[in-house]
Amino acid sequence: MSDPFNGLRELYQEVIFDHNKAPRNYKSLEDATHSADGHNPLCGDQLTVYARLSDQGLIEEVTFVGHGCAISKASASLMTEACKGKTVAEAEQLFQDVHAMLTEEHPPHDMGKLEVLSGVREFPARVKCASLAWHTLHNAITLSDETAKTE
Fold this sequence. Notes:
151 residues
């Protein structure tokens, strides 16, 4: 008997591989108003997230640079696409929703394209890889001086 979710899993894997191979918004941002570093010592993922916020708290641009596993890079790439054009409050809500999706059995609601990360939940050690970029963006937009860690 075939697994009805096999096709969905393959699609999710394709999206992860695509965002890892050709990450979106992978560059430093010279005119960033906010930035933060992130490090996952368990996996070796390291990244810096840059954001340019308007005076009204709108994320006009968000980028990242660094190295890491496929899940870490794909998550950072997806995060930049999801957060661009959002307010800080909306980005913070996305951070909470993604965390819930990665750690709880049922996501809080339809997460759209970000749902490709939901499969990571089956591999608890990889949740840290998927959440690093989100913790790092959180630190950047809240002006934390600390390196984001997922330990």
